[in-house]
Amino acid sequence: VNVLVEDTPRLAFYDSWDIVGIDVNVGHIRWNGGDVNTFTPRMAALHQRIKYYQKCLNRKRRRNPGDYRSKTYQRITAKMNHAYEQVHALQDDLIHKFSHKIINNYPVPCLEDLDVHRMMMDDKKVKGLQRGLFRRLRTAIEYKAAWHHRHLVIANRFFPSTQRCSKCGYIKKVTSYGGKMMLQGDSIYHQHDVYRCYECGLVIDRDDNAVQNLIQYAAGLTPEWETVQR
Prior knowledge:
Distance between the termini: 52 Å
Strand order of the largest sheet: 1-5-6
Strand content: 5-15%
Radius of gyration: 22 Å
Number of strands: 8
Mean pLDDT: 85
Shape: flat
Largest sheet: 3 strands, parallel
Low-confidence stretches: 9-13
Number of domains: 1
Number of helices: 6
């Protein structure tokens, strides 16, 4: 039996309410449904414990450089490794619960293709990026989306989700009024968490603006030329 079916291609992937935009940041993840803390108080306490164990081990190595592997040294090392395992288990639990919730409730998740190596600056910010779980979250969503036949959209690395206004499409540049959005905000209002559009007057949370831009990207509502240069 031959069945002829005519299918009309859609310009957008899905309707906007089927899309979830996920904006990952240092310490938290912002999405349509709110905010997820990736550095919980329990993780902070474990990192402080690890820091204390590292100082103890370093002090023992300095006191006895020739032979410092005593039973006390081995016991502290075991405690430190156990704390590392606890941190990893908490991170895995957070990632899998969040990715499971996203995949079950939204047909089209949208993530950014971040260049993490270029985002690293000083030692303190590097630690924050390493604890941000950027790659591990993307890996979990990728294989779960494949299992459940979801349409995963990876936004272009040069898509200006932070610089673009989600209301009018205005993109902040170095030469434009107010400059680009940096870690300390723009050159007029030094507010990291607030996006101000000087074209339409929109004032919105910076992360919420990025999420709306990712939703528009996945829906095919942004021009291709916007991804040429950030």
